[in-house]
Design a protein that fits this description.
Strand order of the largest sheet: 11-13-12-14-15
Distance between the termini: 149 Å
Radius of gyration: 55 Å
CATH class of one domain: Mainly Beta
Strand content: 15-25%
Number of strands: 15
Length: 327
């Protein structure tokens, strides 16, 4: 008996009992009349009853089973699978396998020794590029993380810390500055409370009845605590206005405009009228707020005493001379 099969879309082939047919690797159905070659990839079947019952299933699947991508070593694509291809057993690739899309591997992936060696070489090259000559203490991710304090927000932490630092160009301190026993070097004028300084007078703030400049001779009186001196040898001397006291008492009483710093002891410049020689006793003059050298034989009263000149002044008119203020 025979059975008709569709062949290449339109051609029919009659299979007789006892005959042998094959689907070759090109998908063609043909009868085998000579010795059967079992070393090829052809699909062989005989015209037995059992084979003929299965021939319909074979016909439906033969386009896949007989279509093998023989490849030519070049760019020719043998077969394209447009649906899902599921392998129940191993997939062995003897040549190169190119994957154009994403490849998901849910199980183990076994690589040959040569493939594993290639991957290891790539990893080693990439790792060396990351290290790039880094010192041994910083050539692993764990060491780098430790160096950053294991802080996942290291950038934010640094921004916060830097915001609390004193700017080199100048800043305002909100607390004490602890130098730890070190010195401040190459500094200019220091403005603040000091136990030693480049200036040399002890001063105290007093409330004045007006605003007075540096070197003005002050006496107790007026509408406030002190006022500018007036009258030759006048008593009630308070001291001399100092703009740069080495130590200032009663500092919080007011400003220089309302509560000038009055030098009580030490050396300060003072306004003076006429010539002055070193060693002269300085007292108030007839010019308001201005001192003059005491030329009398007898010493002035102690309350009229301002200080002793420590430098000469050769001008006849008003000028400045440095004196040792106080007793």
């Amino acid at each position: 008996m025979g059975r008709k099969l569709r062949h290449n879309g339109a051609t029919t082939t009659s299979i007789a009992r006892g005959t042998t047919f094959k689907y070759d690797t090109s998908g063609n159905l043909e009868q085998v009349t000579g010795t059967v070659d079992t070393t090829t990839d052809d699909i062989l079947f005989t015209g037995t009853k059992s084979n003929l019952r299965r021939i319909a299933d074979l016909e439906r699947n033969v386009s896949i089973l007989a279509s093998q991508d023989r490849g030519d070593g070049g760019s020719t694509v043998g077969k394209n699978f447009r649906g899902k291809v599921k392998m129940h057993n191993d997939l062995e690739v003897d040549g190169t396998m190119d994957l154009d899309g994403a490849t998901n591997i849910n199980g183990a992936l076994t690589l040959s020794a040569s493939a594993q060696g290639t991957i290891n070489a790539l990893i080693s090259t990439g790792t060396q590029a990351v290290i790039d000559g880094a010192p041994g203490a910083l050539d692993t991710l764990n060491e780098l993380a430790a160096a950053l304090g294991d802080d996942s927000n290291f950038a934010g932490t640094m921004t916060t810390n830097l915001a609390g630092k004193v700017a080199k160009a100048g800043d305002t301190m909100s607390g004490n500055l602890d130098m730890g026993g070190n010195d401040i070097t190459n500094a200019g004028t220091f403005n603040g409370v000091a136990t030693s300084a480049q200036y040399a007078d002890l001063a105290e703030r007093y409330e004045a009845d007006g605003e007075y400049g540096e070197g003005t001779v002050m006496m107790f009186g007026g509408e406030k605590e002190i006022t500018a001196s007036e009258g030759h040898g006048a008593p009630k001397m308070a001291g001399v206005v100092s703009m740069k006291p080495a130590y200032l008492m009663n500092e919080g009483a007011g400003s220089d405009a309302t509560h000038p710093a009055i030098a009580l002891q030490g050396r300060v410049p003072v306004k003076a009228m006429g010539k002055v020689e070193k060693g002269d006793i300085m007292v108030a003059s007839d010019h308001k707020g201005v001192a003059v050298a005491w030329k009398e034989d007898a010493d002035p009263r102690c309350t009229a005493y301002i200080g002793i000149a420590i430098k000469d002044k050769i001008e006849e008119g008003e000028g400045m001379v440095e004196i040792k203020v106080g007793k």
